[in-house]
Design goal:
With 273 residues, this protein is an alpha/beta fold. The chain is 47% helix and 12% strand. Strands 3-2-1-4-5-6-7 form a 7-stranded parallel sheet, with helices on both faces.
Length: 273
């Protein structure tokens, strides 16, 4: 199976102002795709767009958008149409997490989390699914997480959001097969990005990948064809996500809770609850 020809394609990357999204934009531009860069921090997007246009000769279009607002799909579709851009691919990568005991979490922040990680991921996918299907040669990547594969005590909403992304994307993979669109849920494990800056748990212990390694795992899977609806980045991470298949639901959540507490700086606090 030949790898994807990204030349004369145009791919939206949400959350392109840092981390995995910026790495996706760089990798796609390196392979010849025009890119539409979406996030709130326009200065960062402009800087990245200039870099990609200079280094790879692609068209890179920054669009500032707050994905916690309603109707992000129609808003983004309007912005894209106003610039006369035709979209062949979409990487729904923007997202953030919250952690800590659910009863202590800020309700407004939880609403934003669900809006960015789930509601607008669906809305943006719905807004662009027709051109993606018609193009038939692009990609639809939804960035999930290892957290999608088990309930996450002290990350209850984030894990549930990512479980939604995994389930939603695998279903779209099936629906999209006749169209030629390659659909993938990409689950990073711990990855060295700004993701952890705002988490109450602070530092998480474990083996980190780089954003480039995560992106490479996703593109490698897509280049092999539309064989897999989902991939976990990193061999150890993939093994860990397979474990719940052999456990009861009870054992899975007990295991996940213990492992999560161990990987956070909150070990002492949670042990006392
Ligand atoms: N890092 C990890 O260990 C890890 C593990 C598993 C999954 N993931 C997932 O990977 C994806 C990328 O995260 P990352 O690790 O690269 O973290 P990151 O460096 O913090 O990047 C997050 C991106 O999402 C954008 N974003 C956040 N809130 C937004 C909003 N309201 N509107 C528009 N854009 C918004 C940010 O842009 P602005 O702030 O400029 O808006 C930024 O570009 C996320 O979906 C995350 O859940 C990360």
């Amino acid at each position: 199976m030949a790898g994807i020809d990204f030349s004369s394609q145009s791919t939206i990357v949400t959350g392109a102002s840092s981390g995995i999204g910026a790495a996706f934009a760089r990798a796609l531009a390196t392979r010849g795709s025009d890119v539409i860069l979406v996030a709130r921090r326009l200065d960062r997007l402009r800087q990245l767009a200039s870099e990609l246009e200079r280094d790879h000769g692609v068209r890179a279009t920054p669009i500032a958008l707050d994905l916690s607002r309603r109707d992000a799909g129609q808003t983004l579709a309007g912005e894209v149409a106003a610039r006369g851009l035709a979209v062949t691919g979409l990487v729904n990568n923007a997202g953030f997490g919250t952690d800590g005991p659910f009863h202590e979490e800020d309700p407004d922040r939880l609403q934003d989390e669900i809006a960015v990680d789930v509601a607008n991921l669906v809305d943006i996918t719905r807004a662009f699914i027709e051109p993606l299907r018609q193009s038939g040669r692009g990609i639809l990547v939804n960035v999930a997480s290892m957290a999608a594969y088990a309930p996450g005590p002290d990350m209850a909403v984030y894990s549930a959001c990512k479980a939604f992304v995994l389930s939603f994307t695998e279903a779209l993979w099936y629906e999209s097969r006749p169209s030629g669109l390659r659909v993938l849920s990409l689950a990073p494990g711990l990855t060295r990005t700004e993701f952890f800056d705002d988490l109450a748990g602070g530092a998480y212990h474990g083996s980190y990948q780089t954003p480039e390694e995560v992106v490479a795992a996703g593109l490698r899977s897509l280049d092999r064809g539309n064989r897999r609806p989902s991939v976990v980045s990193g061999r150890g991470n993939a093994l860990a996500t397979a474990l719940p298949r052999f456990l009861t639901r009870r054992r899975t959540v007990l295991f996940s809770g213990t492992l999560g507490a161990r990987s956070r700086d909150t070990v002492a606090a949670t042990a006392n609850r």
